[in-house]
Each structure stands twice: as C-alpha cells, then as structure tokens.
Write a structure and sequence with these properties.
Strand content: 15-25%
Strand order of the largest sheet: 11-12-14-13-15-17-16
CATH architecture of the largest domain: 3-Layer(aba) Sandwich
CATH topology of the largest domain: Aminopeptidase
CATH superfamily of the largest domain: Zn peptidases
Helix content: 25-40%
Distance between the termini: 57 Å
Number of helices: 8
Length: about 375
C-alpha cells in the first residue's frame, strides 16, 4: 500500500500508513502562508479493503465550517469523480472507502489539471473567433493565458471572465470551460448574437502556480491574489499586476470573477455594495444578472450568500470591488460550493465539474438579458 501526491495539484502529508484501516494524514499549508484545506492524493495497493483515511488537524484549516456535511470526491481514472463517505469529528476528517481497483484518487474537489488548462486554451485558439495572448509570467515562470473571443472593436462591450485566483477552487475553471464551449459554438444563436455586441476577454486560470503546487488560496509567493487588486506588486503578485494592466489597456464594462466557497452549500453572487461613489444603476444590473441566472439554471439562487459590505467599507483589494470602482462597471463574484447544493441536491456527485460547466453555459443566458444595460 502506498500514498503519493507528487503530481499536478497534489497535496498530502503522510503521518502513518501501515494498515488500510488506520491511515493518518495531514494537509500541507500553501507556501509562505497559513492557509490550507485543499488535498489531492493517490492510494495504491488497497483494492477491496476497507480504508479509513484520517486527515488530522482539519480544525486549523482555513475554513473549518467547510468540513461540516462535506463528502470527499474520489476517482479511479482521474476523470470521473464521485462522492465517498466522509465524517468530520474532533478536528479529523475521515474518509471511509473500499477501493474497487489498486489505484484511486481522493481530492477536496475534482481537480482541473494544468494539462487540461493548456488543452482548453490551445483548442479555443484554433477557433476563428478566438485569439490567445500571453500577458505575462507567474512567479514560477508560467504563462498567463488570456483568450479574446470576438472582434476587439472599441465600440463593442468589453466582457471579462476570470477564474481561479484561488487555485483550490477548481470548479471555477470547470465553469469557464462550459462557458467557452457555448461561446465558441457556431450553431448557438445566443452566442452569435452576444458576439455581435461584445468582445470577451477570458482568463481561465489566474493562478497556475498555486494550482500546480496544490495550494488552496495563494500563489507561489504566498500571496492571496484576491486581496492585491488595489496596488499589485509585480514581483509578489505578477498575476494581478499584468491582468489589471491588461484591463486598463482594453477597457471593461462587465466582469465575472469565478470562485468556490468552502462552507456555503449554494451558488450565489457577491457584488460591490461597499465601494466609494457607488453607481446604483450598475449594482441594479448586477442584481438583474443574478435574477436572470436563477431563471436560467435552478442550481443557482439569490436568497443566500455573503453579508453586504456597509457603504464605503468595501475592500478595494478585492477584484469585484476594485473593478467596479476603477472602471465604473458591472462587476461580481460568482461562488459555487465544494459540497452539494442543499436546494437541488445530487448526492452521487454533489456539486461537480459537469454541473459547474452547465452553470457556465447558463451565464451567457443571464448576460444576454442584461447586455443592453452595459
């Protein structure tokens, strides 16, 4: 029997792994940070045996409430993921499972690999509507990929979609894949109509270093990128330095920043109520987007979410606030659960890559309903 995590987005520390019935593990922190919660590892050599994988120290994780009513995901082929029995008690997360083969992966959520990311952007770049641009490099020297879909005309509305500032929130890139697949579908009338009015700038993975390193929230330097938008440092947060600079260059009318929430079992949006000089028309447009998305996809809802910031108290280091303030634009954060949706549960998979992609598909319906207001 062996446990390993020396691969793309792998993260686990082995305390003791002598018998399948009592495997003791812990999660490594993000580099130069106290954040931890993402795990991803492979178990081999335990086919047909009842395994108890005890991940200790989970009460010190970034969001301990995220473990309540949570079920880990598992896969035999690293493509099809399903939920497995998981119990959280006294700071230990215990995964109980009988593997059907001698190789099984476990993860906090279905990973979105860097190989798949490269295939996504390269495949999109072959489309006649799309262009791929490398806008800079990460701390580890990886490309920062930006896709532009449609004609970059000054008279068109500038739509930005960004994802995975927090690398452990892999559902965000799954959503972008679904959105892209529809946007690049020549037979989709709604996409064609949107591209007559808009140009899309899409960054599927803002934080590839953190994704590969198996981080929850930080880049290679330990920076929480979604707190660095007010004054990004080119050496510590090059991802935001280059991304914000490209937004300044191209302009912006609408931005959807895609994330995942560890604790809340809902899909919801968070807006920019607390920014200085709040533009109520823009905020009403963001709320309208949320209502339209709920109509288009019952997995989304508007009743539950984050508390709204008090007037003038919004954190301008966060993307949604900074972008709404900087560009006088419609900006929002879309959150998806690591768990299942309590209102529309699907216990076999919980919230999943497939459901994330479908929600991305629906985002274009919501956008089409508000585009005339941008």
């Amino acid at each position: 029997m062996k446990i390993s995590s020396n691969f793309d987005s792998g993260n686990i520390n082995i305390i003791e792994a002598k018998v399948p019935a009592n495997i003791r593990l812990s999660i490594n922190k993000d580099n130069n940070s106290d954040f931890y919660q993402w795990f991803h590892f492979r178990l081999t050599g335990a086919k047909g045996q009842l395994c108890a994988l005890n991940i200790e120290g989970c009460d010190g994780a970034a969001y301990p409430a995220g473990w309540e009513d949570y079920q880990a995901v598992a896969s035999y082929d690293h493509e099809n993921w399903f939920r497995v029995s998981t119990v959280y008690k006294h700071g230990t997360l215990t995964i109980q499972h009988v593997p059907e083969t001698d190789s099984v992966y476990y993860a906090y959520f279905a990973p979105y690999s860097y190989d798949r990311h490269q295939e996504l952007v390269s495949s999109a770049a072959t489309h006649e509507r799309a262009r791929l641009e490398v806008i800079g490099e990460t701390c580890d020297g990886r490309d920062l990929d930006l896709l532009t879909i449609g004609e970059d005309d000054k008279d068109k509305k500038k739509i930005w979609i960004i994802a995975r500032q927090h690398p452990g929130e892999s559902m965000a890139e799954w959503l972008v894949e679904g959105l892209l697949s529809r946007l690049l579908d020549n037979d989709d009338a709604l996409s064609r109509e949107l591209l007559n009015e808009c140009v899309f700038h899409i960054m599927p993975n803002v934080n590839p270093d953190g994704s590969i390193r198996g981080h929850l929230r930080c880049n290679a330097k330990g920076q929480n990128l979604n707190r660095d938008w007010d004054d990004p440092d080119r050496l510590l947060s090059p991802e935001i330095f280059y991304l914000r600079g490209k937004m300044d260059e191209k302009g912006l009318d609408f931005c959807l920043d895609v994330h995942g929430d560890e604790a809340l079992p809902y899909n919801f949006i968070a807006c920019f109520e607390g920014i200085p000089d709040l533009n109520q028309y823009n905020l009403d447009t963001a709320y309208m987007f949320g209502r339209e998305l709920e109509k288009a996809n019952p997995d989304f809802q508007n009743e539950k979410g984050y508390a709204k910031s008090a007037p003038g108290k919004g954190n301008l280091g966060m993307s949604t606030n900074q972008i709404a303030h900087r560009f006088d634009a419609v900006s929002m954060t879309l959150e998806m659960p690591f768990k299942d949706t309590v209102d529309t549960p699907y216990p076999e998979t919980g919230w999943s890559p497939e459901r994330s992609m479908k929600l991305g598909y629906s985002c274009l319906d919501a956008l089409a309903a508000v585009v005339d207001r941008l």
